[in-house]
Amino acid sequence: MPLREACGVVGITTTTPVLHNLLIGLRALQHRGQESAGVALWDEGHLTRRGMGLVAEVLTNFETRFHDAKAGIGHVRYSTAGSSSLRNAQPITASFATGELSLAHNGTIANQQELREQWETEGAAFMSDTDSEIIVRLIAHRLPHTGSIVSAIREAMGRMVGSYSIALLHNDELFAFRDPLGIKPLCLGELPDGHVVASESVALDAMGATFVRDITPGEIVQLTPEGVTSHPPPAGGERAFCMFEYVYFARPDSRMDGTLAYSVRQELGRQLWNEHPVEADLVVPVPDSGIAHALGFAEAAGIPYREGLIKNRYVWRSFIQPHDEQRKATINEKLNPIREFLEGQRVVLIDDSVVRGNTSRRIVARVREAGASEVHLRVGCPPIISPCYLGIDMPSRDEFIAPGKSVADITRDIGADSVGYISIDGLVRAIGKPHDDLCLGCINEEYPVPIPGERVRGQATLEEFEA
Amino acid sequence: MPLREACGVVGITTTTPVLHNLLIGLRALQHRGQESAGVALWDEGHLTRRGMGLVAEVLTNFETRFHDAKAGIGHVRYSTAGSSSLRNAQPITASFATGELSLAHNGTIANQQELREQWETEGAAFMSDTDSEIIVRLIAHRLPHTGSIVSAIREAMGRMVGSYSIALLHNDELFAFRDPLGIKPLCLGELPDGHVVASESVALDAMGATFVRDITPGEIVQLTPEGVTSHPPPAGGERAFCMFEYVYFARPDSRMDGTLAYSVRQELGRQLWNEHPVEADLVVPVPDSGIAHALGFAEAAGIPYREGLIKNRYVWRSFIQPHDEQRKATINEKLNPIREFLEGQRVVLIDDSVVRGNTSRRIVARVREAGASEVHLRVGCPPIISPCYLGIDMPSRDEFIAPGKSVADITRDIGADSVGYISIDGLVRAIGKPHDDLCLGCINEEYPVPIPGERVRGQATLEEFEA
Amino acid sequence: MPLREACGVVGITTTTPVLHNLLIGLRALQHRGQESAGVALWDEGHLTRRGMGLVAEVLTNFETRFHDAKAGIGHVRYSTAGSSSLRNAQPITASFATGELSLAHNGTIANQQELREQWETEGAAFMSDTDSEIIVRLIAHRLPHTGSIVSAIREAMGRMVGSYSIALLHNDELFAFRDPLGIKPLCLGELPDGHVVASESVALDAMGATFVRDITPGEIVQLTPEGVTSHPPPAGGERAFCMFEYVYFARPDSRMDGTLAYSVRQELGRQLWNEHPVEADLVVPVPDSGIAHALGFAEAAGIPYREGLIKNRYVWRSFIQPHDEQRKATINEKLNPIREFLEGQRVVLIDDSVVRGNTSRRIVARVREAGASEVHLRVGCPPIISPCYLGIDMPSRDEFIAPGKSVADITRDIGADSVGYISIDGLVRAIGKPHDDLCLGCINEEYPVPIPGERVRGQATLEEFEA
Amino acid sequence: MPLREACGVVGITTTTPVLHNLLIGLRALQHRGQESAGVALWDEGHLTRRGMGLVAEVLTNFETRFHDAKAGIGHVRYSTAGSSSLRNAQPITASFATGELSLAHNGTIANQQELREQWETEGAAFMSDTDSEIIVRLIAHRLPHTGSIVSAIREAMGRMVGSYSIALLHNDELFAFRDPLGIKPLCLGELPDGHVVASESVALDAMGATFVRDITPGEIVQLTPEGVTSHPPPAGGERAFCMFEYVYFARPDSRMDGTLAYSVRQELGRQLWNEHPVEADLVVPVPDSGIAHALGFAEAAGIPYREGLIKNRYVWRSFIQPHDEQRKATINEKLNPIREFLEGQRVVLIDDSVVRGNTSRRIVARVREAGASEVHLRVGCPPIISPCYLGIDMPSRDEFIAPGKSVADITRDIGADSVGYISIDGLVRAIGKPHDDLCLGCINEEYPVPIPGERVRGQATLEEFEA
């Protein structure tokens, strides 16, 4: 099974040192991954720093040379515990015939296992578990044949199936490219003296860059301080943007492919009211991810909005030492219900999505303990029934609460008075893009690219497909 | 001038180990101080750990003995840069005739300088800059004469002028006491197998303790696993609770002296609308501290509430290394305006308070840059014109924006279209307590205790008073 | 019982920044204490840094102000595990009527418990367990009465019984003083632009300072960049220099009170041969402390000197984490015998001293395992039978191997073929000073100052004395 | 030019957990590299830990799984500053067709650049700068063709030119192999419940293992808890053991290929006296590396041996922070001359080798300043005139003092009264092996394997060879 991870990337090239802006960009993308952070900069060679932890913790105390560099890329990463080691942190750096290459990758190469096994049969050894090493090797492998890095990237893209938004430093040249379906976001910005790419527009905002446009699906761009050269995709036009970026993953103030995440979330709240109205006294968000949805719901419903659950901002990260399992912060520490607001009230609780259902169960119980007479859960994402193979870290199918269960079952399981999920149609409408321009794999089990054992959208499973 | 600092305290005694709950309590109070953290526990002697940083950073990797201890106190602290050193971190620990004493203190002893100088004249040497050492010495000094720790505390209280909410461990005995005016909060809770005191009720909530009551102003309590012995104040009844705890400092879900902070803030928003109505399209909070006020304002005004500024939760702490001044996160990194919401709109911006005005100026400018046609600032706290000497870390008088300025001046200075501060009467009404039960020193220049150079409420200045 | 510890001190005042030389001095004294290190410097106030660990680990990354300071003191410390905490690290800093005072102390105040209890009865609270706090308080207490720091130190010395070599910074004024018997070493040096004091002359050598002279027992000196003012002791002339500094503790290249430690150790080796000759093939030192003795012995005996035991220089410090007891380096890791040298040989093993005997027993066994046909242990210090109360960290009496045992018993216990200790007369002769000018408490149970339960040299025990 | 580095390796397989012994072994080899340390262990997958620093600093706080592992390898490393980064730390770990492989390597692959370039032309990308990655790839590349790891190693050895002593973990199988000339040491030991390989026999001694034998040049061994399977080299018998291991690099108590390093060094001292006698009063070693040579010299000469220079054991490692260049410990801090011994004396100073000459120059000056009337330098290694390309970290040719200079020139340059180097013949005699069994490249410019630009022993340069 592909390595599951979620990441953010930044790349900058300017006529002045880039480190300061690179760090600002990475801090703006920190929500995309808090497990490791890294940078690779060009100063007559690739200078690299990678570490386990937050940007503010591990990307400090740089030597002077880092402060001088005028081109660089950066990465933040989250991954499932098993493969959470420094060995897999990014950017990955390699050297080959034409020099050095560093690469920061958000997404998942779905056919990495196939490529890896094929090469292993030929006698290859892999120095990491990451699909980023696969990408580096694909590019390196084509370079002697193509003679140009752009052509090598293009040919490598022809071999890669999956999602990828990538910032790449080849010696001092900065490139960025995005998979042909544009599954993960990537956008382009302009600084007074250079250019920048980043996973989300908030990184541009934070460093005071001007948003220029999204990188087109399948496009390769080369950035220089002076300008941007685009190498558009050969053909196509098919798209499959990850709906979960809008629902939960991206920062609310990010615009992706022209649409503001916050607006989508508010609209999801409004649609939820339309689809699942309920008589109630209060609309209460699960902070922070349910706030925008809850405001939309409350406005549409005309029911007062109340912050009935207060989040402790200092336990968002567990800082757990090995063997200190018992110290893991409980839901009691993280979310505190306000009895004064909830007592005797019929409460609509709004969450952005429900994955395993454990947290929802505990929150519903806490809200009841605080005196709520009824607790109705409304969820801004359709039931998640299938894993993500394309760049969102999710548990495996048998850990989800929804598969094979009726909403009545789920309601009972979670202990709510009612549960209402947004419909797939409602979700698509809230996003405001054509149904076929979105990747809905985790909610409709149809994936935009072939995944072993899963159905390709509008088609058979890979196995059927190959048969 | 007294050392300025803000702090949180916890104390627990149970029949089972306390460390786990002590850390939960301190994490729940982390908003009261992020600069240093410490604990002192009893296990046949006082075991101490203090460090610069967050609870989750410095209170880890304890030796086995700490895990066994069944009584302990803890502290989180913020102070002005000058005295921000490990030497002044708390709890402070001392040994004297009857054993060991550790003390965690929130508040400021206003006559510490006087006491210090008097003792210095007599040949005393002080091992720290803290007023906590003054308190320890006062208690120790009376102990041989009184023979009882409670009497010694009582006599020490007779010498101390100022604010103090204190958890104190004398050998394995846990005590707590609060200054006669009850300036800083302190409450009592019950655990299944013991008792706990904490600066705010949220610490009790987080560890699953039941709130019992606030410690009465001037009261000394002794806590044991089995019960609580109260030593009520000799007389009095005068009160002076810090209004700023309700306005900004305490967590919104804390109840202090019977009143929920969140409710006060919402009510401040409603009062603000009554006092300073304005024709506008949107109510936008300065997150996070202005959210409750803004929701109250929007509700009262019937103007839509919009989260037009998004906070980057990962730059709340600067993690600044020495000499890295230039990396200090700017307002651009911390708060990102959403153009889609603000463009062409008449915006009411709600903040909890304005101290120096610099942040307000920058936020107003950012909101304008994002396209707002008008920006009206409403502030949930009257103009701050005088320093706090009693437990809130504030700059000195000449750094405030308000003293000696008209609101028109301030409006111009900040660059808003209008500025409206809540009135003192409006504030008092929102808190719902008698005017004379509050400390309003920073907004009316009348302090509940004598401060050199300042006016005592209902009286002359200390100098006049002593003359 | 007094806190047991061993320490080193440095103090420098120059017309240029002192930090660099202060750290060189402390590193040269690192053998005197590896547990904590600290400095206090004057730059319009006392700047302090203290930490657990080596100088090179904890005294780094100083802020700019430390680099500017032109007067400062430093300290390295070792103490028994129980009181090994940051709270007791030095220099200790205090403030009082005339300003700030920082103090670095080597030695032990024997009557500290008495002073402490007396003050505690009067209501004093102590902020640390150290006798340094006692000294600070004694000085502070006299200051208002004397009006001069020198007089206050002199009066404090009148109250202090024990050993002390002290560097003291009073605001920007540097002082040094030594107990009336000169028990611990302290010497004075000259830099191109200032003056320095240090526990051992090697600290002067390392920073390129010129040795001027030892501080006289009972003398107080004030150092300025320009000169040195001496305040000689009122009378006396009695001395009691710690013989163990020569035998083991000081660095071999240090000169103390006119005598080079290395020469004493070589002479001890020669005397050992005279007192305990033995027919043997090889003389083998226990490295590193027995090397000088062994060279002297081999030379006198005309028996070849061989390094038959090789030390692993990387396990000298255990770096043991809590709970990692099992990783503690064994004698096998620390000392490796060379079979090629030892096999079939009659070996004289030379150690500087034997305290508990455990290490000697293991080394003798290892040397036998490596094939030695005979192992004769020769010890450069008479049997240690009584604790040190005056500045050397030693176990308590019942942990020593020697008390109440004959040499035959000890020989059997250690498993050697013979054991020969240097005699007290031999030791005194090797040192080359009058018997009465040395402190021999740990080997003859007669102490130069009154110790509760012990005999004062030439007198009765304190109890008898007081009776 | 090949990456220059010096390293130590250990590998253990037992029926009980290996971590404890692995760490003991690495600490015993710490002198071979203090810059990075790492381990790879098998516990249903390769668990790895690598870090910059000493074993005792970076190999701590392991998770439980590491403590359970029963097979593992370890590495310590030193390299020239330029490539001193975590990215190049070892063991290196890779995965390929038959599972996982971790490898710890001491030595240098001389044709790595050639192999690297050839592969790069074919489109390969390298994830590190190390020759270890080259070795891993060579093995992986042959594995599909050979079907056996031993055959793959054998075929890989056929492509590798240079020095290598390697411990290799393939899944849970432990292998070790040594280059066909046996340039770097590697030996085999037995534990009560398993087997171990290590760079030097001292690692076996430290963990209480029994030395079995050296790994034969060109041999591959597989170790299991129960036994050792040897795959002897196909033919050959040529040898080229690094003479510098005996002269300086190995620990004195190590036996390599049957010869104790200490004995070689003593004998070098004796030969030095024979070759370069001098009338003098004292023989003084440069500690620690010149001690054994000096004892041999003194014995042969009948001149007294004196430790006239004392080393500060606490400045052996600089602990220098970035930008703290000025704190670098000087020779004054590291070595302190004892005037009492040196004054007015004719001194023979013995050092193991002279590379750049800077240190020698400073030491000679210090000894003169301490009063020596004459200083004669005797050096236990012939003049170093050519770089090491095979596993000893040395500067480049133009930094050596000796090339193109007469001994008279060098004497003047260093400021000695006379300088005497051991002759190559004397060196070979002291080692006691045939001249042709040693690698003498750095002293006679004839290398045992082809090095670009250098002469192969008994042959032409590679260029001539290929022409």
Task: Give your account of this protein's structure.
Four copies of one chain form a homotetramer. Chain A contains 17 helices and 25 strands. Mean pLDDT of chain A is 91; it is low at 317-328. The first copy, chain A, has two domains: 5-238, Aminohydrolase, N-terminal nucleophile (Ntn) domain (Glutamine Phosphoribosylpyrophosphate, subunit 1, domain 1); 263-315 and 332-429, Rossmann fold, CATH 3.40.50.2020. The longest helix of chain A has 16 residues, at 131-146. Chain A has 467 residues and is α+β, with helices and mostly antiparallel strands. The first copy, chain A, has a seven-stranded antiparallel β-sheet, covered by helices on one side. In chain A, strands 5-6-7-8-12-13 form a six-stranded antiparallel β-sheet, covered by helices on one side.
Largest interface, and how many residues on either side? Answer: A-B, 52 and 52 residues
Widest β-sheet, arrangement of strands of chain A: 3-2-4-1-10-9-11
User: How helical, in percent, are the residues of chain A?
Assistant: 25-40%
Number of helices of chain A: 17
Oligomer designation: homotetramer
Q: What is the architecture of the largest domain in chain A at the second tier of CATH?
A: 4-Layer Sandwich
How large a portion of the residues of chain A is in β-strands, by DSSP E? Answer: 25-35%
Mean of the pLDDT scores of chain A? 91
Radius of gyration of chain A, in Å, reads 23 Å
Q: Give the number of DSSP strands of chain A.
A: 25
Q: Which geometry of chain A do the CA atoms define? A: globular
CATH class of the largest domain in chain A: Alpha Beta
